Amino acid sequence: MARTKRKAVVGAKRVYMTRRKAMERLQLTLKDFRRLCILKGVYPVEPKKLKTGMTRGKTYYLRDDIRFLARDPVIWKFWEYKTFLKKMTKATAKKNELTLQTLRDNAPTYKMDHIVKERYPTFNDALKDLDDALCMCFLYANFSKVKGVPVEIVDLSRRLTLEFMHYVIESQSLQKVFISIKGYYYQAEIMGQTITWVVPHQFVLQAQPEVDMRVMRSFTEFYITLLGFVNYKLYSSINMYYPPRLSLKKETDKDMIVGEDKQHALYEYIGSLNRSLPRSKTDEIPVENKPDEFDEEEAEESDDENGDEPKAKKRKTVSYHKMVKEQNIFKNLKFFLNREVPRESLTFVIRSFGGQVSWDKTSFVGATFSEDDPSITHQIVDREVIPNKYMNRYYIQPQWVYDSVNARTLLPVENYFHDVILPPHLSPFVENTEGGYVPSDVSYQQNLAFGERKVDEEENEEDESEPESEEEAVEHYEKDLKMKVKAGKEEKVDKKRKEELEKAEEKRMAVMMIPKRRKRLYDKIMYGKRRNIRNTEKLKEKREKYEASQGKQNFKGKKAIRKKRQD
Amino acid sequence: MVASKKPKFAKSRRKGWKKVNIDEIDTFYEDVRLKERVGQPLDEPAFKIDKEAEIEPVLNGVKKGKVLKKLKQTKDLAKNIKAYKSLVPSSRVPPVVVFKNPAQPEKKVKPKTYGKSIKKKKEKWTDLKVGDIWSGTPTKAERKTRLKLKSVLPALELPHPGTSINPAIEDHQDLIKKAAEVELKKLKKDEKIQRLLHGGVTKKTQSQMQKEWLEEMSAGLPVANEDDQEKDDDEIVAEDPDLANPKKVIRAEDRKSKSKRRREMLAKMREKAIREEKEKKKKENKIYQLKRIKKEIAAGEEKHKKNMEIHQKKFEEKLCKPARLGPHKYEDPDIPVSLPGELADRLRLVKTEGDLFEDRLKSLQKRNIIEPRKLILKTQKKNVKYTEKRDCRDYENDLLNK
Predict the structure, then answer these.
(1) What ranges do the domains of chain A cover?
(2) Residue of chain B with shortest Cα separation from A69
(3) Region Disordered: start and end of each range (chain A) (predicted)?
(4) Counting C-beta atoms within 10 Å of the first and last residue's C-beta, which end of chain A has fewer, N or C?
């Protein structure tokens, strides 16, 4: 018989492939196919144009992608698993216990290390995709152990996320925190990449019927492997040992923790956040992992040259010392956490900004100092009535910690005492553009944040003016003597003002020198800015009018409104 | 000439034998025998003991390198097996002579394990044996990932400031407004569906309904009025194309003559020539229209450029929008909002909203990583009709009940 010639695949069919066809080709069930796609990072596509023989309601994949999937050795394991399941069903039907046991012992397993390397050829690629991995792992880490959620995934993600938090603490890379009604949003800067993740509130996570947990699980499986490798690299970058020993007990006791005590193990994990991990060599951190050093003067000069650029960019060039100072705002402060506050989050935040934390040692493991320690500066509470107060410490609500971190200074504690109505918790992810309208609450908090600095500056000025006052005293004395010859009065030169004037002059000159074709663009920009300012002024005026009409309420007027509503 | 011939003898006779000188050998053997007799030592030993070579007993069927297993002694066997115990001397009197093996280093023999062989544990992904996989610089082939940009959307959407546990009043109002807009849209859509479902139906009177019914039932039946029928027949004829235009029959007198055909052809050719002339002139004239053409080209290019820009914009928009990846469309999740009354004064009392698992799933769908799906509830069981078997039926009671 003559060999039949295979029909060539042409046109759109050559590019795309339906999911059904792909499954047939790979000999996988839908479940396995989905999992393989997730692990390998192969996503469905929307065909550019629907050609004949293609239907709209179908899921299409690129033919090349499917070919790529077929090449991975993981697929063999998937096939093996398929036959393994068949054997298992057969054995269970026959009630053949011995076969079942041997089958179970030899169940096919797979590893995903090579896929991680393949999908993320460089460490930077992995860091870019870390947001997803962290969110998913933190979700699983906070999952209670219920039916259908594999225990090992929960345990592994709990361990890995904690390791990651340890890294963030040790490297002091946390930047922003925000508590929303969904959960805690954190943002850290790791090796030049901004990484954001969300951690759910405690005790609220539940499996939803609308969410296919099998899909989520496949994602988490891959992300756990990824996070393992990333953690290793991060740890080695700051000379820390990996894997760290997170359990506070000795390794020999670890096996004792089973069943009911698992909850206890979780507490222990949080407790471990309170210790710093050992490093191999303390001082020899590679240069690329240290924060960049900038000269302040240089930064200023460059600012002058590009005077038209928005101020937001100016703010980003921070001097090294300033940055170090800002990362250590809680240094030399001792915090004691009451039972009712979120321990994990607070410990993580306070420790990443250089503070010391402890809690009641009878309730949870890992306490470093007791409540009656006189050196405690702040006690974080979340209740109105406190029976036994210590005199030498502030009793504040947890929000103070988060707001201070976002403002990068210690905010005045009076507004956060345990029995007052709190100022709003603002999102640090909103960036106000220059000249834009800033809501009153935000401007209030900004003023608070910079208030302390202003005080410092004034003090410094006073110190400088001391010798001058001496001279003045001499003058007065001379006046008293009624001498005829008057001493020449020293002209007071306001250095700041002079500098400002000079700068303004320079800028004016620079503007004059702009060539004509660029001048138009410059004028446009300036016009836009002025318009922005005008609008802001309008809004401010409106606000003032509104406040005047409302009668003079204090700045917390809205709080009063809210309280009224609640009543 | 006579050749001298050797005398021939039969070889069976002694005379016919070959004569060889064996004196030398005889003397040697004589010498040897003499020595044997007399008992004089030999000059050199016939063989030598090789003391330098390793002693390796080679047994039949056993390979050279294999170390022989030490045979088990009764003493050892008696430890576990009862039958061997009787073989062990139980006398308390020590033996007179104790035979000792020449000193040999005692070899430790590993106890043989019976039953299940210990296998090497399979490596699972959960073992998480990690190392530095990004140590070297990746090769060109490695760097070529299949990761393509599917969407420019961020993995984690930053939260709206109004979702704070203790939001500023402006932010909170803004969020509520957003959520309300979404809800209103949904309501509007729902209303429209309801209106289409129920609003389009108008009430009819009994008489109207009867009339309609009559019309419906009598559809297709021959109508009583004859005039109408005739009209209908005409219409049918007119409508049918075959009936209306029967094939034309060309009679002999109507046929075109040869000369007529020729004339027609010539006329056609003339027309064609005129047309071509005109075209030629037009083309030649175009040189004077260069300016206009240039303008046209410029306009076309401008248009093309604009189209490209639109295309680029569309492409960028598409990157931000979820693609259509399956039978279901992507739908945004509900915006989590805490109403003004629900805002708590303290962190401890905060009422949480939204589900992060759903959020994650929606985010993946939005970024075209997985296709949107809908929850398919388990199908209800079919209505099963139960019948009593004839054998079990209680006829008497049934009858009584009736």
Answers:
(1) 12-105, 113-272, 330-457, 510-553
(2) B146
(3) 280-316, 452-506, 532-567
(4) N
